[in-house]
Structure formats: C-alpha cells, structure tokens
UniProtKB/TrEMBL annotation:
Lineage: Eukaryota, Viridiplantae, Streptophyta, Embryophyta, Tracheophyta
Keyword Chloroplast: no
InterPro entries linked: HNH, HNH_nuc
Biased composition (Low complexity): 1-28
Nuclease listed as a keyword: yes
Origin species: Macleaya cordata
Pfam families cross-referenced by the UniProt entry: HNH
Residue ranges, annotated region (Disordered): 1-31
Keywords: Endonuclease, Hydrolase, Nuclease
Superkingdom to which the source organism belongs: Eukaryota
Recorded GO MF terms: endonuclease activity; nucleic acid binding; zinc ion binding
Name this protein carries in UniProt: HNH endonuclease
Residue ranges constituting the HNH nuclease domain according to the UniProt record: 63-109
Length: 181
C-alpha cells in the first residue's frame, strides 16, 4: 500500500505555511511492535529468577544473576533493569514474552543488538556494587514504604528503626530479618 505525499497550504496573516505529510505506511512496521506489551513484561518478570527471601513482585535476578527492583525499570542505577529482546528486534526478534528477558540496564546497553553474548562476558559489564540484605531492606522501605518478606506476617520496621535511630513502642513484633545487628 503506497501513496504519494500530501501537501497542505494554509494562509494566515499574510504568511504561507506548507506542511508535508506522508500517507504511506509500512505494513511490516504496523505488524511488528518494537516495544513489549504490559502482558509480555509481566510474563517476562514472572519467568525471571526469584531472589531468595525477597518478595517476588518486587525483586528478581536478571538473566546474568544481578538483583534488580521492579520499581527501577528503565533507569541507569545498579538495581535498574530493562526488558531485553533475547534475539534483537533489529535482527528479526519479536516483542513477545518468549523473546524477553530482564537485564540490568548497564548490561543491556553493552549487549545492544548483538545476537549472542556469552553470559560470563555479560556478567563482566554488571554493576560492581553488591548490596547487603540490610541495604536492600532500606532501599525497599524507601521505595515501597515497607519491607515484605514472603511468609512473614509482621510489622515492618521503619527506616529510622533500621538505622538504630528509633525504638518502636508498638506491641506487634517487627519482622525478623536475616542479619543480626
């Protein structure tokens, strides 16, 4: 389906504006979506490795083992990630859940449109920072307002409590976290 460009002229206050628009469209681009749908992203997140002791709706490991936070999608920090086409879109890969993986943003930038990169090589481009459980708890508290541990029904400590600046008077016990102070 092809047609010639359309030219439009408008006269306003003694000036003439010419606008050119193209009505031709590529059927290929209409059928191939560049970006993953919400459903594909949700399935991609769900198939990523769960971080032991962390809430699976908040934390996962990317395809090379880096811990990422769901709220840090499409940013540039060490806990940030992007949805990556396993087979690059530019090389025919589709934007489907089957062709999707989560990758730490820094790693995804290195991978770019390469068909195949060894997992070890990708790990070499991972962020050098590794977070302790306590640091991840503080980040989770700051990002979500609480810390959720799978299976624990307890009161989450505030950031001030975690930093030792405040002792709660609440009768509900605080969650037992995997580190000792």
């Amino acid at each position: 389906m092809s047609s010639s460009p359309t030219r439009t002229r408008s006269h306003n206050n003694n000036s003439t504006t010419t606008t050119t628009t193209s009505t031709s469209s590529s059927i290929n681009n209409e059928e191939r979506r560049r970006f993953f749908s919400t459903k594909a992203k949700n399935l991609c997140w769900a198939k990523a490795e769960v971080v032991p002791g962390r809430h699976p709706d908040r934390w996962r490991k990317d395809a090379v083992g880096n811990i990422v936070c769901k709220r840090f999608w499409n940013c540039q920090g060490c806990l940030c990630f992007e949805y990556d086409h396993i087979i690059p879109f530019s090389k025919g890969g589709e934007s489907t859940a089957e062709n999707c993986q989560i990758l730490q943003s820094r790693v995804n930038r290195f991978k770019a449109d390469k068909d195949w990169v060894d997992k070890t090589e990708l790990q070499g481009f991972s962020c050098d920072l590794k977070f302790t459980d306590k640091e991840l708890d503080i980040i989770e508290m700051a990002v979500y307002g609480d810390v959720i541990r799978p299976g624990n029904q307890c009161r989450c400590r505030t950031v001030a409590e975690m930093l030792g600046q405040y002792k709660s008077k609440s009768g509900i016990a605080a969650c037992e976290l995997p580190y000792k102070e």
